[in-house]
Amino acid sequence: MTEPNTSEFPNDVALPFQVESLGVRGRLVRLGNSTEPVVRAGRYPEPVAALLLETQALTALLASALKYDGIFTLQIQGDGPVSLLVADITSEGDLRSYAKFDPVALDDAMTSTDGLLPHLLGAGHMAFTVDQGPDTERYQGITELMGTTLAECTANYFRQSEQLDTVIISAKASPPSRDGVNAAALMVQRLPASSLEGEDANEAWREAALLAGTVSPEELLNADLAGNDLLFNLYHERGVRAFDAKPLRHACRCSRGRVSKTLASFPRTEIEDMYIDDAVAVTCEYCGTEYAFQRTDLDVLFSESEHASSENNA
Ligand SMILES: [Zn+2]
Fold first, then answer.
1. What is the pLDDT of residue 87?
2. Whole-angstrom Cα distance, residue 115 to residue 138?
3. Which residues 6+ apart lie within 8 Å of 271 measured at CB?
4. Domain boundary assignment for the chain
5. β 94-101/249-250 pair status
6. In this structure, which topology does domain 256-313 adopt according to CATH?
7. Ligand 1 mean position, distance from CA 70 (Å)
8. For residues 110 and 7, what is the distance between their CA atoms, to the nearest angstrom?
């Protein structure tokens, strides 16, 4: 067993573990402080925040099971009131997310339906992308949304596309708190190769999945119950081994420079339509930071980009 994580934000971690005697490995993810931009007052209505919390927890969960050097993105698109959920995480553990939704259709869906996933997202798909920079191959997995929760949809993806028996259990705090755990997810996966064979292996998998299913949302979200202790409670009879926890944090990669580049990629005439009081304001969808550009800033920006493109064409 490893020592409890003592990072700056002790509630934001991904904890890998293995239960060899059952032929399974897993991850426990908990998110506290890193959910602040999602649960910030006034940012998202409750049902959207709840979906985004789950998206963030699943993103951290899936990424922590991969070896990569770059950015892992989980993108969920649907034709329902919530049309987009996106979260990404760097290999350093910097996590961010945002959602797009139609407020009127959302209100409608919450009053006239059960408010479950199929009614909020509708028909759609989830896509996983690993971007390791230019000159590398992008990995992408894509699957239809099948299930009543995002955790269920993700587990279905593993079963169908990767032929990997998987159980994922997620929980989110309602209402979220400032200092607690606001989102959590537990994943247990059958190891492709273990010392168990045939019916023994199937029996062990059933036991592992059954035990995972006994974890309660309260336990997953209980900041006073260390991740190691939670895993011990579940699997101590079978000898669980937890590895080093990886610290996670909210961090956005936006900057004035990046926003400038995006603006410069639009035709100047479109930018003209964006002026309010002689300035163009751009808000980062991930973190909410506002960048304001005065007319003189944009004059400089466009003369620079025209200069650069004429040099490229030369
Ligand atoms: Zn940002």
1. 98
2. 35
3. 263, 280, 298
4. 13-250, 256-313
5. parallel
6. CBS domain Like (3.90.1280)
7. 18
8. 38
**CA 101/CA 85 separation, integer angstroms:** 9
Q: In this structure, what token pair is assigned to residue 86?
A: 């996106």
- The tokens describing 230, both together, are 């939670």
Residues pairing with 72 in the sheet: 89, 130
* Binned average pLDDT, 10 residues per bin, the chain of 314 residues: 53 96 96 94 92 97 92 96 97 96 93 82 94 86 90 91 92 90 97 82 95 97 95 95 96 93 87 86 92 88 73 57
Q: Mapped to the 3 state alphabet, what secondary structure does 87-99 carry?
A: EEEECCCEEEEEE
Residue type, 230: L
Distance (angstroms) between ligand 1 centre and the Cα of 130 equals 20
What is the per-residue DSSP string for 163-199? Answer: ---EEEEEEE-SS--SSS--EEEEEEEE-SS-S--HH
Instruction: Quote the ligand 1 centre to 279 CA distance (angstroms).
Output: 19
Residue that the structure tokens 């260390």 belong to: 226
Q: Which residues contact 180 (CB under 8 A, 6 or more apart)?
A: 11, 32, 173, 221, 223
How would CATH label the architecture of 13-250? 3-Layer(bab) Sandwich (3.55)
CA of 206 to the centre of ligand 1 (A): 43
> How does 222-238 read in b/e, with b if 16+ C-beta sit within 10 Å?
bbeebbbbbbeebbeee
Task: Return all residues near 30 (Cβ < 8 A) that are at least 6 apart.
Answer: 11, 12, 13, 15, 57, 181, 183, 184, 220, 221, 223, 227
pLDDT at 2: 40
pTM: 0.89
Which residue type occupies 205?
Answer: W
Q: Provide the 3-class DSSP secondary structure of residue 59.
A: helix
In angstroms, rounded to a whole number, what is the distance separating the alpha carbons of residues 119 and 276?
37
- State the residue for tokens 């426990």: 28
Q: For residue 184, how far is its CA from the centre of ligand 1 (angstroms)? A: 23
Q: Is 36 helix (H, G, I), strand (E, B) or coil?
A: helix
